Request: fold
Amino acid sequence: MIPPEEQTINPDLNAHQTLIASKQGTDWKIALFQNTPAQFHGRPELVDEMTNELKGLILSL
Reply:
């Protein structure tokens, strides 16, 4: 997440999102949305890896 008025990702705000959708007739409905902070407890290399991946995705937009 890039906080308002900031230019870069704040690794402390990294999160994993899960979305499950179901088709009802011709419509799609959100059945579940989960937002979980990406804490990685004691593995700072995983925080860096996720942050770099997210930066790459932003640059490709």
Summary: Residues 41 and 61 are 30 Å apart (CA to CA). DSSP finds one helix and two strands in the chain. Helices lie at 44-59. Strands lie at 15-24, 27-37.
